[in-house]
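Practice record 12: protein with flavin-adenine dinucleotide.
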Amino acid sequence: MTRTPDQLIDFDALLTEEERMIRDTVRGFCDERLRPHVADWFEAHDIPDDLGPAFGEIGVLGMHLEGYGCAGTSAVAYGLACLELEAVDSGLRSFVSVQGSLAMYAIHRWGSEEQRNHWLPEMAAGRAIGCFGLTEPDFGSNPAGMRTTARRDGGDWVLDGAKTWITNGSRADVAVVWARVDEGYAGFLVERGTPGFTTHDIGRKMSLRASITSELVLEGVRVPDSARLPGATSLRGPLSCLNEARFGITFGALGAARDCIEQTLDYVAAREVFDKPLAAYQLTQAKLADMVLELDKGLLLALQLGRMKDAGRLPHQAISLGKLNSTREALAIARTCRTLLGASGITTEYSPIRHANNLESVLTYEGTAEMHQLIIGQELTGEAAFR
Ligand code: TGC
Ligand code: FAD
């Protein structure tokens, strides 16, 4: 009998020894430090304060970046870490994605040497937390319309506007804030406590409850020119960071799917209906077979994208294929697993409904499924159908 859903395709044989070692280290950390507590964090709509340093200790924060205290692993190894984290909860993978792929990547790619030296080692260790403020109340899918502005005032910049749905916004020591400037768009490092900068957490979430989501308000926030990311002058700045996070999600969402299938395999073996195990019914097996097929296809696509990324030839349109496929299929798998668990599936005693609710956010953030269809559509036809 196959023990894990990816054994049929011998997925491990496609990984290097180092990739398997990193994956197993993260999996061990997840089993010991995260999985026993995650249902409580989800229930409490909160995460512990020491998560950052704990992630820093195992080296997953900015792990695919080079230098400045970062591990410099392959993209595939980073993807596998995301997969293991999201097998626990999408909110925990989000913490790592936002820190490493969005905030740290923005500083690494577009920042000055001084900014890199100041922030990256602290962020890699989880002693400093970052957030990434792109979305605004009226501009989510279309960040080009943003209203947040930064205007020059002597040697300083003055920022006004609001960002919303910002992961870790109120926990962050530094917010990467994207704003409109006379010449286009620019990114700024706004430190917590800067006068005029406030945050408010968004409550009553039914999804990503083991994650903090906040609004950022900027009212006449004055920062020096040294807080501007000097390399970013157009929307390419923030969109290049999204590529990194979307790549991580391509692997990550499949972790949530794997966890749902594993829990469901155990459940259907133990649950007796009409005098025999639920696992022994053809309708159950058809669902299981289809889910494992989608998971394994998703893993092969994710790995191919990872190999292309490590070879330096991954177009952002191909990342859209991965983000769209993994989130859409993982959500379908989580919902199907929920059906197999019957009434038991509606409580957080079992993971599928928590994963399904989380995956609603994952389908939406980092570009909605529709945005990724449009990006792929534009690549195929040459026609931009966004506007
Ligand atoms: P467009 O005119 O196509 O491009 C503007 C400039 O950007 C460049 N570009 C890219 N560069 C790098 N990577 C990409 N993926 C890029 N896509 C475009 C382009 O070459 C151009 O550069 P330049 O220098 O010539 O000016 O832009 P557009 O305004 O038409 O928008 C295109 C569209 C709709 C695809 C884009 O706006 C988009 O992707 N929208 C979705 C927004 C989104 O994904 N937001 C995510 C916010 S962060 C988040 O959700 C975090 S969730 C927490 C977690 O990750 O766990
Ligand atoms: P809208 O853009 O209003 O879209 C609503 C619907 O319209 C969607 O179905 C969309 O696909 C569709 N639509 C939009 N345009 C078109 C079109 N041209 N054609 C057809 N359909 C269209 N943002 C950050 O900047 N940083 C973060 O850290 C962050 N974290 C997040 C955490 C969570 C839990 C969530 C839920 C969101 C987070 N976001 C973050 C915001 C996220 O990126 C946005 O929610 C997302 O980009 C979609 O924007 P919107 O919610 O404004 O939806």
